[in-house]
Amino acid sequence: MSSSAPQDTGHRLWSVDEHLADVLSAVRPLEPIELQLLDAQGCVLVEDVTVPVALPPFDNSSMDGYAVRTADVQGASEEFPAVLTVVGDVAAGSGELPTVGPGEAARIMTGAPLPPGAEAVVPVEWTDGGTGGGAAAGMTPASAAPEHAGGEVRVHRAAEARAHVRARGSDVQAGDLALAAGTVLGPPQIALLAAIGRGTVRVRPRPRVVVLSTGSELVQPGEALTAGTIYDSNSFALAAAARDAGAIAYRVGAVADDADTLRSTIEDQLIRADLLVTTGGVSVGAYDVVKEALSSVGQSDEGAGEDVDGGRMDFRKLAMQPGKPQGFGTIGPDHTPLLALPGNPVSSYVSFELFVRPAIRTLMGLPESEVRRPSVRAVLNADKALGSPAGRRQFLRGKYDAENGTVSPVGGSGSHLIAALAHADSLMVVPEDVTAVEPGTELEVILLG
Question: What is the pTM for the complete model shown?
Fold first, then answer.
């Protein structure tokens, strides 16, 4: 790597780390609420959950077959089967159970409780199924042949005690810790909660994130383009990224370059937002509407906000590429965080990954180790050196090869190259003091997938 000292632009440049720290200092985990199990999917548990009853709560069969006493099937074979009297059926959910005495068996289904007197289960394939013929392939349905719940069954193999029996408490015992506070509730965790009888659980809710893009040139996908217009991709990308981070995302249609309209739209969205994200309109152009619309929320000549109308907004420049212009603050009576991202597609997405995703994960109450994307070290695999501006931390799209420990650039460095972004799975990080990265150099790589 070749290095160069950061350039003095005469303006206050925030580092990536300073901006992220400022964002996270204003974000607090959401207050816990009690939710129904399916509504709690993706949420973070705020309490330890202990097991009230053992799982399974009773000894039960792991096979369809016959519940027997081991002494009655000792030495059984196809040539000399054990012939037992069938005293009844035991289905899953059975209440009253037949007692299995000497020389007796009970038909039993998977999950059904082991009846009194029985010591093991022999699979139906080890028997004639009560038909008097050879080895059975399966149980005859009770509705089709109720008589097979009686009569005799020939057992062709011996069984040891507890064979094919799932013991009470073999999964978890009453009083065991089922799930610890801080657990993210996915499908297996929801299943466990249901299995131990929990209908609701106390969690931090998934943050509600409202995403809106700005620009009079934006047209919704599916509509016809006219001269000078482009499709709005940013709001879709960021809403999808918010969902991927664990949030409930609301995408608002593109807002035209009108400060009053934008201000009104933001005010309307506050009622359903734990976090607001805008894209576009934060640079120095004459139509950068986000800065204009939020100027009443306080901005000094240096770009630092002042508390006005229950909020504070700062617009600043960061020592990074892409994504130099950024805005951050809190607005409204509840001091709802708002992150204003640049409008170029790659700048917007990179900014989301670096700043918005950590804010969402913090709102969720996740531990610090799970707030940011994981990163690894990888060797640059490229045909030529990669350039980087002095004094800027650059984030380049990459394709990571975990097997070989390498990363390859995808597309160029332009902040509008959304096609390249779609084929990348990582971001290559070039430090601020580095202006060229030679092939074979080890880099930090942020994994996006």
Answer: 0.80
